[in-house]
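yo

u said u wanted the structure for the complex thing, so here. seqs first:
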Amino acid sequence: MKKLIGIAAATGAMLLALTGCATSGDAAAEGPKPLDELVVGFAQVGAESGWRTANTKDIQASFEEAGIELKFSDAQQKQENQIKAIRSYIQQQVDVIAFSPVVETGWDAVLNEAKAAGIPVVLTDRAVDSQDDSLYVSFLGSDFVEEGEKAGQWVLDEYADASEPVQIIQLEGTTGAAPAIDRAEGFAEVISANPNLEVVASQTGDFTRAGGKQVTEALLKSNPDVDLIYAHNDDMGLGAIEAIEAAGLEPGVDIKIVTVDAVKDGMQALADGKINFIVECSPLLGAQLVDIVKQINDGETPEKRIITEETTFTQEEAIEALPARQY
Amino acid sequence: MSALAKMASSRLFWPVVMLLVLFAINLVAFPGFFEITVRDGQLFGSLIDILRNGAPTLIIAVGMTLVIATRGIDLSVGAVAAISGAVACSIILGSPDPGSLATVAVAVTVALLISLVLGVWNGFLVAVLGIQPIIATLILMTAGRGVAMLITEGQILTVNSPPFKFLGSGFWLGVPIAVIIAAVVFGLAALLTRRTALGMFIESVGINPEASRQAGVRARGLLFAVYTFCALCAAIAGLILTANTAAADANNTGLFIELDAILAVVIGGTSLAGGRYSLVGTLVGALVIQTLVTTVYTVGIPPIATMVFKAAVVTIVCLLQSPTTAEALSGFRRRLAVRSGKGVAAS
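structre next:
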């Protein structure tokens, strides 16, 4: 019995390999298609946040601008919907499939189907957890550690001349979430260069305004001499502003604030001088995704890991950037 | 001595002890814990924060106490809170003059009216259709957050309206508005159910619905009333939570607050099996929960361990309150008393 299964598996694998060869051979023979004949299938997570909505709009706009047809589906935060969408793209024989995986695991089967059909897959914004990294061509998304490092670098520069200890409060994201872990790691790494910079308290505010406010309220009382607050996202930073104002202090002046994200409300607070520095975590992946699709079409191999082009904002830059901010 | 023993046998004894222990831990970690100063004409201090941040939980827990006393439960309070916040914010955002008192009054009134409808819906499912409360309210718990998402279109609605913000972070005579609202809700509930026969009716329905019906208590009307009141409490809490940050976040406003509220009721000594309830117990329970949150921050418990710490405290309170533990403790005390009595006799 075991032998039989083994044979069946081996035959299956051979068949897969054969079809894989055949299709990629075809593509090479055809050469690059004209852009208006390309079809890309995109399976979005859903519309759960302002960030995500901006992400969707940007991708749709970028493909329209490039003249490439985009088939779009919304999975409403459900993996089964996303798998269905990907299967339908495989049946329609689109040229490239792109998607933001709802969860990290459980993609091997459907991605193998795409591979067997010779359709390259691009991951956007979120990664999949799979042993086999040949299942996707490229992963386009933010580097959360780098975001933490950028925030840390600003703090390091800001307090380069400080001779006294600088007290820092860190508002962490949801415990265990990848952005929370990585943003803390990058930040800690960079500020360790200056022994005067000390994180006196670090608590989770769950990425929400209410959480950020409540934690800051309590921590301001037990650490009244705090100089700076580092929040893992804008919303917690906005909550911290409320708490600082309630304590009769001036946010951005008495206590400096550094955050990550650069959503509109955060940028407004930065422009108003209540936040001092924001590291961008951009949902605008559209242009880079179009580039990857073009590369694949031209027969090139895009890089396995592409990091979103992201910038940082000071207060002056925020005032300039704010009117054109889409999200 | 007998006064002390009486106190120890009270249902409120252990929750109060736990509250005092938490206060003591805070005082050790942060010596200025009990300090209350007046800053810009407003009371300012850790205790004030606990009262203010605990206000929404307390308000919901008051409504929950009455629901639980009828042998019911309301899981939908968090969703109702999110809906009321979303409704109020979208009305304020949609009006030409977001800062005017009239706009805010309309927004708050509409939000509260909608919560009444939601409460009547829960009451209808439980009292008329006879669906088990946990299932009946589960419907609105899951669907409600979706409704709130629809209202906000999945975005966080930020409003710039001073009168609305006043609800969450304003002060009156130095006292936070949220605390005043909580006090009014608590006082009203206590007055209505304890100064009239209403409380007794609620308890009787919880102890034995059939017997109370035969005794002439109109259970159906009572159930409608408690679920509607609970939804109203949830909406008030939702408005305070939303006003606190001046932003309606359909995903997170009042998330898991139903569990905190139920926990507050249980810590306060009201049984989930219905019947006798204690509003003062609920007050102590809500304070224990909020103090616990503050303790985590002041003591600096790492976020990874926070849940375990909270669970440990809640477990201790529940263990101390359980009838078996109480039995064992009183048995231990009796033996001690007997032994010391013998000792006296022998000497």
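The CA atoms of residues 160 and 193 of chain B lie 38 Å apart. DSSP finds 15 helices and six strands in chain B.
cya
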